[in-house]
Amino acid sequence: MKKIGYLYAIVSAILFGSAGLFVKLGQTQLDSVSLLTVQYVIAVTIMFIILFFKDKKALKVNKTQLKDLAILGVVGNSFMTVFYYLSFNYLPVAMTTVLLMTYPIMVFFYAVIKGKEKFKGSKILIVIMAFLGCIISLDLVNAETSYSLMGIGFGLLAAVFYAFMNIFSERNLSQVTPLAINGYSTLFSLISLIIYKFPHFLFRGEVDLKTYGYITILAVFCEIIPLTLLYAGIKYIGSVKVSIISNLEIPTSIVLSYFLLNESISIIQLIGTIIVIYSVYLIKIKE
């Protein structure tokens, strides 16, 4: 079953790596919170339809689980995604992604402090190698442009709440199915966003069909599928390994930008991509 866990984590990372492209496209008409609200409306509707027809038993959760799902949704999912999307307003997609990829380091050291992981040099090296691979693949060392401090702050806050999501779901929601975790947590996230900013624009016809198309892609391929696979992967191999594998988001974003946006890839970026992939391979063989 651990092989399935690795597969889930890899596919999740690849799909998450495509999110930045569609966020940029979807933000042409909507701000970050409004875009996220529409995305969650679509995602929640689809997930609960699937649960109702495919697995009604998964819809039944006890009071403690419901409370934990509310915490995961409001504190984890909402804040992580809002800060992540806000950072796109100030930073390039690549820079935002690499800031988010600091979260495996946070997950790893939390696991060490709690005694779930041994403080081994090999694992520390793999975590550092994966992060350095991200930096090299983005060629940030040679970047001559300056970056917004506010954007960097938003990106790091997104990483903090992403780490929280991984840790909290592993610790408190092991008895809830991955799709139910995703469905309920996203529902609570949606409720919190509506309270914060009611989406009046939905009733005024201010958004065109093209934008709705991009947001639907985000909801299905960058929300429902990858986040469900993320929770499933955590159940099988744990939050530390899943977080390290998630570094594959960087090579994915680079490859997509090359093929879809005709952006060039340098030798340095290829080397960084290879380092990230090799780090994922190392965490697998260390099992």
UniProtKB/TrEMBL annotation:
What Pfam families does UniProt report for this protein, alphabetically?
EamA
Q: Which domain of life is it from?
A: Bacteria
InterPro entries listed in its UniProt record: EamA_dom, EmrE-like
Q: Where are the transmembrane segments?
A: 7-26, 32-53, 69-87, 93-112, 124-141, 147-167, 179-199, 211-232, 244-261, 267-283
Q: Which SUPFAM superfamilies match?
A: Multidrug resistance efflux transporter EmrE (SSF103481)
Q: Does the keyword Lyase apply?
A: no
Q: Boundaries of each EamA domain copy?
A: 4-137, 150-283
The positions making up the signal sequence are: none
Keywords, ordered alphabetically: Membrane, Transmembrane, Transmembrane helix
Homology family: Belongs to the EamA transporter family.
Q: Which PANTHER family match?
A: ACYL-MALONYL CONDENSING ENZYME-RELATED (PTHR22911), SOLUTE CARRIER FAMILY 35 MEMBER G2-RELATED (PTHR22911:SF137)
What protein does this entry describe?
Answer: Drug/metabolite transporter (DMT)-like permease
> What organism, scientifically named, is this protein from?
Clostridium punense
